[in-house]
């Protein structure tokens, strides 16, 4: 699951932080707090340790190959896919729009820095296949990245390798 070289016909798509969308979701939280209002029933608010990332699909006929993930130091990163086509000016993120399974990578505090990251491989495989399936009907897909136990976005590199279907 660490960084590696992709096969010649493979496409490695990096997750990119969508800072504008993350900020818009943070403004929603602060607006509710300032006005004393409650979130809508079923609404999923962005937590302080979360950020929105995106994958852009230039080719939509893909097969999942593998994950590339590196994390300096220790911590836990959880990646949750979002099923909606994002229109944050019109709709808020609802809990029912979060996909299963989620992807989780981690390195424990006592693990050496050069130890491989841990993950739930079956979930990661299914998650990657689900992303490839959704790419068939999307050009962009959004994800919530949660950073815990010391993990930070600055110490993270995450991408997914796909091969073209043909």
Automatic annotation (TrEMBL):
**Biological process, per Gene Ontology:** sensory perception of smell; signal transduction
Domain of life, per UniProt, equals Eukaryota
Under PANTHER family, the record lists: OLFACTORY MARKER PROTEIN (PTHR15357:SF1)
Would you tell me the protein name for this molecule? Olfactory marker protein a
Q: Which gene encodes it?
A: ompa
């Amino acid at each position: 699951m660490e960084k590696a070289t992709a096969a010649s016909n493979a496409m490695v798509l990096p997750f990119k932080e969508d800072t504008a969308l993350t900020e818009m979701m943070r403004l929603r939280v602060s607006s509710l707090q300032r006005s004393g209002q409650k979130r809508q029933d079923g609404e999923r608010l962005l937590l302080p340790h979360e950020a929105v990332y995106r994958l852009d699909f230039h080719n939509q006929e893909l097969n999942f190959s593998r994950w590339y993930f590196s994390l300096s130091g220790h911590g836990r990163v959880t990646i949750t896919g979002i099923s909606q086509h994002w229109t944050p000016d019109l709709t808020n993120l609802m809990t029912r729009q979060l996909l299963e399974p989620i992807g989780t990578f981690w390195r424990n505090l006592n693990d050496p820095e050069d130890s491989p990251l841990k993950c739930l491989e079956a979930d990661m495989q299914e998650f990657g296949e689900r992303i490839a399936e959704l790419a068939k009907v999307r050009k962009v897909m959004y994800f919530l990245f949660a950073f815990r136990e010391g993990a930070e976005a600055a110490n993270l590199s995450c991408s997914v390798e796909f091969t073209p279907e043909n």
